[in-house]
Each structure stands twice: as structure tokens, then as C-alpha cells.
Model the fold of this input.
Amino acid sequence: MKPFMKTGLYALLLLTLPFFTDFAFGKTWVRILDFALLYVMLALGLNIVVGFAGLLDLGYVAFFAVGAYLYALLASPHFGLHLPFWLLLPMGAFAAGIFGMLLGAPTLRLRGDYLAIVTLGFGEIIRIFLNNLNAPYDITGGPQGIDLIDPVSLGQFSLNHSVYGYYFLFLFLALGTAFVSTRLQHSRIGRAWVAIREDEIAAEAMGINTRNVKLMAFAMGASFGGLSGGLFAGFEGFVSPESFSLTESIMILCMVVLGGMGHVRGVIFGSVLLSILPEALRYVGPAQQSVFGKIYVDPSSLRMLLFGLALILVMLLRPAGLWPSPERRRELAAQGETARHENTNVYDAARD
Amino acid sequence: MKLLEVKNLHVSYDGIKAVKGIDLHLEKGEIVALIGANGAGKSTTLRAICGITPMHSGKILLEGMDIGKIPPHHLVKHGIALVPEGRGLFGRSSVEENLLMGAYSRRDREIKADLEKIYALFPRLAERRKQASGTLSGGEQQMVSLGRALMTKPRLLFLDEPSMGLAPIMVQKIFEIIRTVASGGVTLLLVEQNARIALSMSTRGYVMESGNIILSGASSMLLDNPQVKAAYLGQ
Done:
């Protein structure tokens, strides 16, 4: 098949997907698709930090929260402000980027588990702030959050709460973030990220300013999160601190790792899969009913159990992720090959 | 003027005085060996000169210019390259990607031509240019690290334990290549535990022990020195 035909086919599939989904499973599932696309953007952002630059971030959801609250505060009756979305989305991305640098700056010398703990703390700080900034002045609405947020709209035309409208908006932006991710990966800064991930001292010796490059990774990743946050606020019409818990950070991290760290297509696959799987597992209740005529295990507990089991199995059977980049697959499969090369080398060295 | 001059260098980290006031220098075109036992402070000295470990006090001069305060990523622009201890490869990247990272700070048009020169110097890397560098043998990895450092077009090259973890036959091969590099006009500072091979190919040497330089002089002289023989050559 010619490449443009293939692209055309994919485009057609993506554009008609919500209609088929609605027809087959109902509107709820179109909404799940919308969320899947939102997670694609989030996971692609986290992938910059974790996958490209190798900096483990467990508080990523904080940037999502920054974007969401910025949108909520400036486009709701809460302060009586109603700024347009095309201004709020870039603002959210920018604000989150600043927060990314705020997190990055004090953690420059940290790596691995130490970095993970600090970022985890950062995520919690943001959430707790949001939860408590309702007294003495009500800024964030506290645990009740902010309601009646303006939907995404342009002039007279409003998406209201149409799952279709948001699907196309999210699809467009998710493809955009995927494109930006791919371009970043192959850019000069992308190569610098790989270098600091693999060996920081050598990277420095090559002339890479490791401090700036790391801050850049935090800022870029965070701005993707901020963008998705704004979209989330407009889509849901309601934000509260509950949506930005540690579990959410871990979920996004799972999407990146499970899909294939550092591989844009893998990460997209991982995030779609992990946003759909927990929803699909809701059907274990009805499934038991139809097979055994009775519900033996409570579906809500079984759902997370099966989900956890699926994660463990994937990590055991495909440690590089479900769809890793070719480099990563090679690395994890190379044990035997390396040994063979070592042997031929001893021979080669003796020969020359 | 001396290419590199280190004066009264003190380095401490984690509360340990690792380098206690050493002086050393390199003339243009020299191969200088810095030898000593494990923990003598050799690598710390090198890392301090490169700005990776901050120095406590002292002066580091490159052709008379104080480079002590220059951040490590700027040194490459002054013609200083490092082959780090343990090779420091970008393991998941291919051989060619690693070599091209050496040209990260360069903006000239010679990069492609220089890459071919590296392949001419290391034919085996040319065969494996698409292979992930982490899957190469130790000797090949050392070649990549050396080639990558050469891609920065250095005039001063620091080698941190190039013989570490290599089979004896590979050590011979790597040092042959290092000699070729030096004959191309690059000044070398060689930090090594393998005193015999380091002294046999260098012009001058320094011997370090617990943070001090205890001996220095022409390598041929050090090779004959009874103290060096007893402590480092096992004779």
C-alpha cells in the first residue's frame, strides 16, 4: 500500500472512530476515548522527562493540576473571569513550564530514587495547597473545587459538553503533541537528553550544559501537562484536588513504562490501553453474571486486581514495554549477542 | 608556555582530603602519565581539572589562562577532551550516534570527514557503526570512547584508566592507538593504574600516593626507580 493511502486510512479511522464507538457501545465510551486522548498528551509530556531525559518524576500530575486550575480560575464564575480558551491553554502550558523549572532547579543534582522522592513530595505539596487555599481568602475553592467552568468555545460556537466536539479537539492536539515529541527527540536537545540519561559526566565532557538541558526537559514535559490540564478543566467543567492524587501520577508513569519508555508510538499505545483497560474491566461483573448466573466477586475490587495483574505480567514478559523503541529492545535482548561478540573479539584481537 | 599547568591543587569531597596540594604541568605534544594505586587521588585530580569535582584551592592554567572557574561543558570549546573512567558511553545509542555526540559543540562542516577519519583509525567501529554501543566488547567500547573524544577535535586529551577491565591483548591494542593519536599532535594526560604500560609509552610521569605527588620525572627514569619498581611494577 502506498504511504499516503495508509495515512489516509488511519485518518479516516481516527475521524470516524467516535461514531462507531457510539453506535456499538454508547456515548460513555466516546467519553472514555476523549479521556484516552487526554492521557496520550499527559503521557507524552511525562515521556520527555522520564523517557528521553531519564529523570524519574512521580509528581507529574502537579503540572496537570496547575493547567487545570489556571483554566478553572480564569474561566468560571469563581472570580467572575471568563477568558477565552485559546489564551488559557498556552497560559496553562507556560505556567506549568515555570512550575517545571521550579521543581527542576533544586533537584538538579539528584537522580533515580532520590529524585523520585522529591518529585513525589512536590506533587503532594501542590495538591495540598489546592486543597487548603480556601481560607482566609478563597482562591482555589478548597476541597469543593471549582464548578461551572466555561466549556471550550470560540465566538458563538461552543463545544458545551459534546463528547464529539472534544474528541476532535483532543485528537488534533494529541497529534500535535506527538509531532512535537518526535521532533524534539531527533533534535539537538533530544540528543542531549539521551546523553545525560546515559552518562552525565560524559555528556558534560561533550560540551552539554547538563543543568540547562535538564531544566528544559522538566519545563517541556510540564508544559504538555499544563496544556492537558486546561483541556481537562474545560471538558469536565469541574476541578477538585481529588483528581490530582499520587495515584494519577503513577498511572501516567505506568502508561509511559508499559508502552515503552522513550518511544513516542509506544507511549501513545500504552496510554490508550491503560485508559481503556480499567473501564473495560468494569464488565467483569456482567460477564460473571452471564457465565455463572451469579456475581461471585465484586467487580470493583476484581477490576483493580486484574489491572495490577496485567501490569505485572507485562513487566515480567516484556520488560522494555509493549512497544519499545528498536534500541531499547535490542539492549534488553542483547545478553547472548554481547557474549558472542566478546568471544569473537578475543579471537579478533588475537588475529590482528 | 606550558599547555596546562596545575598549581597547588587541593580537592576534598565528602570530608575527605583526596588531593593535598599537587603541582603538575604538560608541555605541548607530551604524553604524561599519572600513576598510583587505587585511591591515591589520580582520578580526583583529573576530575578537578575538568571541573567535574570542584577544587578546594589551587590554580589550573591553560596556556596561562585560568580555567579553574570555567564550567566543565565549556572546556570542550577550549580544546580539552575527556575519555572518562569506565568509558562513559551512551550505551543505548549506536556507535555512530556516540561518535557524533563528540561533535555536539562543533558547528563546522568537517564533521562528516572527521567521522570517516575515526572509522579509518578504528576499522572495527566502521563495521559496527549501527550497533548499540552498550552491546560492544570492552575494547570496542574503549575505542568508541576514544573516538568520541577525538571528534571534539581536542588539543589536550585526558584518559582516565583506559586499560581498566580489558583483556591484556586489548590493552596493547588500545595503547597502540593512543600512541597514534599522540603522534597526530594531541597532548595526552594518561591516568593509569597499569604503571608499566603507562610509563612505557609516556615521556614523563608523576607518581601519586595518598593525595600527594611523591615522585616525578622522565618515564624511563621512573621505570628504573627502585621505589616504583617495588610498589607498582611488582619487581
About this structure: The radius of gyration of chain B is 17 Å. The longest helix of chain B spans residues 168-183. Chain B touches chain A at residues 50, 52, 71-77, 81-82, 84, 88-94, 97, 101-102, 104-105, 124, 132, 134-140, 145, 148-149, 152, 167, 169-170, 173 (CB under 8 Å). Chain B is about 35% helix and 25% strand.
